[in-house]
Design brief:
Strand content: under 5%
Keywords: Membrane, Transmembrane, Transmembrane helix
Number of domains: 1
Distance between the termini: 36 Å
Number of helices: 5
Oligomer: single chain
Structural class: mainly alpha
Number of strands: 0
Shape: elongated
Transmembrane segments: 26-50, 62-80, 100-122
Order of helices and strands: HHHHH
Length: 125
């Protein structure tokens, strides 16, 4: 299991107790936001790197369009991956492992921190 799978099931198990019907949607939303934030951070880093190296590879409009397309792809990939049979198989494997003791507020803060870092990096470039 990947790190994202582990985080997904931690969120799924946490919210399954409180909001049974919405647990899967909340966990998919969290994983998608985290992956999209990491994609944004990488994009800003490579845009700044390209600008420092004086490389003209892509216009800003095309880069934002590509980011939006990749964001939609990430969400639908997660939706398909974690809504079907694979989620049930991974959940059964995850139940055999020990319970995770991550702080849920710290995990919610993680995408916010990545977005803040991307914003700071964008301002520096």
């Amino acid at each position: 299991m990947t790190t994202f799978d582990t985080l997904f099931f931690h969120f799924f198990q946490h919210y399954k107790i409180k909001r049974n019907k919405k647990a899967n949607s909340i966990a998919i939303f969290y994983i998608s936001v985290l992956q999209i934030a990491l994609l944004l951070l990488l994009g800003v880093f490579f845009a700044g790197f390209s600008r420092q190296m004086h490389m003209n590879t892509m216009s800003s409009d095309k880069a934002w369009t590509l980011f939006v397309i990749m964001s939609i792809f990430i969400y639908f990939k997660n939706w398909i991956q974690y809504s079907g049979r694979k989620r049930k198989v991974l959940n059964a494997k995850n139940l055999k492992n020990k319970k995770l003791t991550y702080n849920i507020w710290l995990l919610w803060f993680l995408p916010i921190a990545v977005l803040a870092l991307a914003f700071v990096l964008y301002q520096a470039v």
